Amino acid sequence: EKGGYDYFMLKEIAEQPKAVADTLLGRIDASGLLTLDEVRIPVHELREIDKVVIVACGTAFHAGLIAKYAIEHWTRIPCEVELASEFRYRDPILDTRSLVIAISQSGETMDTLMALRHAREQGSKVLAICNTNGSTIPRESDAVLYTHAGPEVAVASTKAFLTQLVACYLVALYLGQVRGTKWGDEILAVIRDLSHISGEVERVLETMEPVRELARSLADKNTVLFLGRHVGYPVALEGALKLKELAYMHAEGFAAGELKHGPIALIEEDLPVVVVVPSPRGRSVLHDKIVSNIQEIRARGARTIVIAEEGDEAVVPYADHLIRIPATPTLLQPLVATVPLQVFACELATARGNEVDQPRNLAKSVTVE
Ligand code: F6R
């Protein structure tokens, strides 16, 4: 049932191109527009929404953090992202014009369920992004957009995460489409790029051997840091979470712009630091700032592991290890940048002799608060 792979996690990482393609299937029409019939919230209500609030836990929360960048950019609707476990305990401001998006692979996470119940009590509409048909969270929501990742067995979430991202992009683009923002042309172009992204994920998977080798060489380390900016920041958080849960290593993700505000004090000789570099096209200011961050940490002895777009030559002099990813529009980069981090964590776990599919102390679905 592991399809020739040693672990479900490896199988599920390999299935990501198909999972991503399946989540897009039937949702883009012949004219390149989105048809999200499942989102049964009437268009006139979607036009009235004045706030989006995303609630989720763990990896799904990281998908939500990335969704915020996409939703605010393409729709100009303010978007908050909150850990489901914190949400209802802080008396959040919600009303009938708020759209709450609950993201959950299992559809059974108790904290996320309680958050959506709280939102519905305030009269807000709830849209679930979920991978498990007929589970509790979609049953209790106003609408559901299913991710079609297929069953995810390994405790550490991989293909569900990528499909959650795709679903979030679809919602963001759809809201932009029905509300008619000034980004109309960009929205059409991104829908086109999304329809090719499965092939880009495939290309990343084909180049992972050096990442596995690198991971094995770091098996005796205690700490790995992850840095990113913009949508690369949640990718850094996800890379760190994967490493904690699988390799049982101390791993932390930081926004690269925060380095000088504390984390740079952690840098010491030979400390592995993974840096997710934004595209040098598009938001090139951020790219240049991150290149100087890499210089700064390397000057202090860090071993830099740099994830950068093909053709980005500026990073080469400062990268002790360079992991190439295909060029994508900035907002879509997490779909390709996360994959090497999943492979990295999985290989480190194996090298350290850990149980990859069933890490200690963790359960696949957390049905208690
Ligand atoms: C991490 C992981 C967890 C889940 C979290 C939410 O790899 O699997 O952090 O993402 O428990 O679970 P769902 O998505 O089922 O609500």
Short description:
GO terms for molecular function: glutamine-fructose-6-phosphate transaminase (isomerizing) activity. It is built from 13 helices and ten strands.
The number of helical segments is 13
Low-confidence stretches: none
Task: Indicate the mean pLDDT.
Answer: 95
Biggest sheet layout: 5 strands, parallel
Rg calculated over all Cα atoms = 20 Å
Coarse morphology: globular
Structural class: alpha/beta
Bound molecules: fructose -6-phosphate
| Beta-strand residue fraction | 15-25%
Function: Catalyzes the first step in hexosamine metabolism, converting fructose-6P into glucosamine-6P using glutamine as a nitrogen source.
Subcellular location: Cytoplasm
GO molecular function, one term: glutamine-fructose-6-phosphate transaminase (isomerizing) activity
Catalytic activity: D-fructose 6-phosphate + L-glutamine = D-glucosamine 6-phosphate + L-glutamate
Describe the structure.
It is found in: Cytoplasm. Keywords: Aminotransferase, Cytoplasm, Glutamine amidotransferase, Repeat, Transferase. It catalyses: D-fructose 6-phosphate + L-glutamine = D-glucosamine 6-phosphate + L-glutamate. The radius of gyration is 20 Å and the shape is globular. It has a five-stranded parallel beta sheet with strand order 2-1-3-4-5, sandwiched between helices. The chain is 44% helix and 15% strand. The longest helix is centred in the middle third of the chain and has 22 residues, at 184-205. Helix 2 (16-24) packs antiparallel against helix 9 and helix 9 packs parallel to helix 13 (334-351). By secondary structure, the chain is α/β, with parallel strands linked by helices. Helix 11 (232-247) links the parallel strand 6 (223-228) and strand 7. It has 13 helices and ten strands. Residues 57-60, 104-106, 109, 112, 156-157, 241, 245, 365-366 line the site of fructose -6-phosphate.
